[in-house]
DNA sequence: AAAATTAAATTTGTATACAATTATATTATA
DNA sequence: TATAATATAATTGTATACAAATTTAATTTT
């Protein structure tokens, strides 16, 4: 993780690095995390490292076992479904709230991300598509002005990212047309301020994205312990 | 530092104590929390105390300001509404899921809590009522078998408890009949496994409880900074 | 006296030493 | 050999000392 203008504490640094490594599967699910080893690796002491670990625990990316040892939270289809069911509700909620509060300027910003998504689809650049898709969802979350929902969604997003990795979203053949069309449709109803429709569409969008991940895992489930 | 039957780490102990004090308004909203002072008070060192503070921060009960100082999260009507809106969705979700998975034994356990709630209403013991009401909701959450949802609901419950305190729920005149009837109705549909109705009723139940708190605050809002 | 500067104190952030616990290896015993 | 008991090593949990940063007080300058 890069640091910007503000100095980053060792604890924050460790948190960012570990989170990224877990999401990117550099640490395998269920793998043991040893404080001493990680501290030496990151060239910090155990004190700030532990802070980072405990934050990750509360976000559900690592688990403290009964004996005190930390492991990377295992991945299971069951948990993936849980995460997506909750995410479906939360994304539906913020979309509804955003629909009631969005300014014209916000709508323009959404249009921009969609334009960029279109270009990504044309070039079959799924990485870029994902980036702009996340911007799209991020703008909607922002416009909900619901900090509580935003906080939870951030935690869910971390887990979602890991499941995306596991399902092999990097594959260029990954279907991008469906999510693009769904985004366009959502924007349409956001413009009309039809909050109920927006909520329903957003929920269907998330529901469908879980299906995609489930299918990719089904065909692709050699490497991870499902 | 005290210990119970199962050994409690100093960090866990500090977490529990601080959480309780914040919820019970022994620490005022927006009050400064000094590590050294708290550590001396709890008779532990700063190391485990800080762990506790960081956990509370992630749960939204304390906030770390830009200068690094910790304050008790301020209370606002706006946040209360956010918390309840999210809680409404989550309680609706777990109720729906529980409805699909509940055993006869679980239903009996719910009946028991309702019996105890009835007795509490008869005697106008709102403290007892609240306790059994939380058991009622806890059983439903448990039966959802959705750990992700349960984790979030636990965090929300902490904030809800504080808002209940602020609204002065201790008042014996506090109306208990409405929530009791709502619980009874929810149980009825749980027995019939009508998951859609269960979800709708639970959501209405939470929505109504926010209204109660808003009203109590409106008449009672001298002491806290709304 | 007001504003700016410096100095002292308070407070948070980190490293390290040690204590308590848990896991692993070794030995003893049947 | 298999099992239990014990010793050893590895790992987590806590306290403390010190460093870095921030706030408050004191001093100087205009």
Structure description:
Two copies of one chain form a homodimer. The first copy, chain A, has 226 residues and is mostly helical. The first copy, chain A, folds into two domains: 10-72, Winged helix-like DNA-binding domain superfamily/Winged helix DNA-binding domain (Arc Repressor Mutant, subunit A, Orthogonal Bundle); 77-219, GntR ligand-binding domain-like (Four Helix Bundle (Hemerythrin (Met), subunit A), Up-down Bundle), CATH 1.20.120. In chain A, 70% of the residues lie in helices and 4% in strands. Chain A has helices at 10-23, 35-42, 46-58, 77-101, 104-122, 126-144, 147-167, 177-191, 195-219; strands spanning 32-33, 62-64, 70-72. In chain A, strands 1-3-2 form a three-stranded antiparallel sheet. In chain A, a hairpin with a 5-residue loop joins β2 and β3 (70-72). Chain A binds a DNA duplex (30 and 30 nucleotides) through residues 9-11, 34-36, 44-48, 50, 67-70.
Task: Briefly say what this structure is.
The structure is a homodimer of 226-residue chains. With 226 residues, the first copy, chain A, is mostly helical.
């Amino acid at each position: 993780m890069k640091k910007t203008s503000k100095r980053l504490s060792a604890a924050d640094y460790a948190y960012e690095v570990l989170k990224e490594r877990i999401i990117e599967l550099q640490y395998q699910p269920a793998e043991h995390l040893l404080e001493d080893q990680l501290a030496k690796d990151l060239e910090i002491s155990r004190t700030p490292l532990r802070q980072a670990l405990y934050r990750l625990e509360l976000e559900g990316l690592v688990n403290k076992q009964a004996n005190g040892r930390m492991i990377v939270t295992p991945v299971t289809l069951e948990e993936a479904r849980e995460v997506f069911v909750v995410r479906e509700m939360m994304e539906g909620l913020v979309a509804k709230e955003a629909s009631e509060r969005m300014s014209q300027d916000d709508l323009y910003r959404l249009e921009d991300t969609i334009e960029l998504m279109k270009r990504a689809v044309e070039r079959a650049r799924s990485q870029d598509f994902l980036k702009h898709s996340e911007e799209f969802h991020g703008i909607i979350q922002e416009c909900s002005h619901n900090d509580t929902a935003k906080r939870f969604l951030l935690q869910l997003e971390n887990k979602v990212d890991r499941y995306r990795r596991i399902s092999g979203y990097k594959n260029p053949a990954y279907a991008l047309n469906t999510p693009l069309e769904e985004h366009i449709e959502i924007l349409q109803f956001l413009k009309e301020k039809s909050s109920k429709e927006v909520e329903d569409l957003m929920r269907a969008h998330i529901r469908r994205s879980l299906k995609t991940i489930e299918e990719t895992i089904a065909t692709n489930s050699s490497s991870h312990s499902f």
